[in-house]
Amino acid sequence: MVLISIDGLRADIFLHPEVNGFSTEDLPNLNKMAAEGAHIKEVTTVFPSHTFPAHTSMVTGRLPFEHGINHNHLFDPKRNFEPWHWWADSLKVPTVFHLAQEKGLVTAATPWPVSVNGPFDYLIPEIEPVWDEKESTLELVRQHDQPPKMIEYFAFFSDLNSSEESTQGFQRDLNLHHIFKTVFRKSLPHLTGYHILRPDDAQHTHGRRHDRVREAFLFADSLVGAVIDLITELNQWPHTTLIVTGDHGHVDHHTDIRLNALLHEKGLLTVGNGGITNWKAVAHPSGGAAFIHLKNPSDDAERQNVVSLLENKEWGQLIEGSDLPETLKGYGESDFVLLAEDGYNFSGDLDQPFVYPHSGGGHGGDPNNPQLKTTLFAMGRGIRSGAILESSHTTQTATLIARLLDLPLKTDRPVPDILK
To answer: What is the DSSP letter of 133?
Structure first.
């Protein structure tokens, strides 16, 4: 089983290619998977529609508040929410990787979110420095790869580009692709997670429709084609299922709203040394949404102060935490949720002005937004050729993997109807 996640893979690229600057011939390998295997047109992501919560739901079958990864970033105001959920120790429930390893199967991640110290025989973890500028990404990866010194193996005995610049952009994804192919060729793991990041980077920088975005998706499609060719070369299709999906889509924005800068301006929090030193109310921003926490939720005066400050704004819809619909309860406990209106993005910057012109793409908002839906392709062992489904949910990817590998996943999510 190979599970490829293309970060930021949008369903509408396939549903409306011409509208989005693509043609039906632009992504030949994904179209090949749709023709020869199965295609789920729209996959609804989780809330918040962020990379780490979505990837974890993809391999647990649970919503973020259930599996413990409810945001990309830890709730850590003192460090301005910069630390990420790198660590598998944060998980509240097992992933399909845990269940596979317990069954005696060989597991790999090259790379995968929330993987550090996780259940992998072969691991290139997703981790990078966010607070200590003296650390390097490569040194952090070297501390946590499995087996130890795997990065050194690739650096010294293959053509891996091991400069610090190689941890970003196209070169990063090329390095990871090279590692994936080598691990697969030499070890044939039973379950491999493989994360392609470049399309998400391009959309954050340029928005949904840009030549650089098209270039990034063509690049990702070529990597998928190389994986298809490798499985064919090794004659592994009778034994291998290939799943390619995304974690979320993207929406365009023209303005950042720096909520904690606003709360600082109004005396509801204080800022110092690059972080938040004290707060009565604080926002945990996630791009398309923000989660407002009160230090003392029973203080009615403070609660009303926040309502007066944040309700009826052109840039956001304020919802009481107790009034959230089921589809927006993924984050878990918060006093309020702000949903960004079209064109706006909630950023974590603490500098003024709190309304800051900034164009680009983002996610994190309401998963029912069609632009935030992703898609899924599958082919190989166990997959019904020509199967087409209109929709599924990210959590159902885990049930699909569990059924194909006969893993005892505890979830009430149904298996998508694309199996033989």
So the answer is: T
> What element of type H or E holds 33?
helix 28-36
Q: How far does Cα 280 stand from its chain's mean position?
A: 30
Residue 292: name the closest of 354, 341, 334 by CA: 334
* Terminal C-alpha separation, the chain: 16
From residue 202, how far is each of 103, 110, 198, 206 by CA, in Å?
39, 21, 6, 6
| pLDDT tens digit sequence for 174-203 | 989 999 999 999 999 999 999 999 999 999
Torsions phi, psi of 273, nearest 5?
A: 55, 35
- Structural contact between residues 48 and 71, judged by C-beta atoms closer than 8 angstroms: yes
pTM of the model: 0.96
- Calpha distance 12→3 (Å, rounded): 21
Residues 33 and 244: beta-carbon distance below 8 Å: yes
Q: What integer is the mean pLDDT of 324-350?
A: 96
How far apart are the C-alpha atoms of 47 and 413, rounded to whole Å?
Answer: 16
Which pair of structure tokens corresponds to residue 1? 């089983």
Average pLDDT rounded to a whole number, residues 116-133: 89
Distance between alpha carbon 97 and the CA centroid of its chain, in Å?
17
CA distance 209 to 186: 39
Position 132 pLDDT exceeds 70: no
Q: Rounded distance, CA 361 to CA 368, Å?
A: 17
**pLDDT tens, 18-77?**
888 898 789 999 999 999 999 999 999 999 999 999 999 999 999 999 999 999 999 999
Q: Delineate the domains of the chain, giving CATH numbers in brackets.
A: 2-250+368-405 (3.40.720.10), 252-361 (3.30.1360)
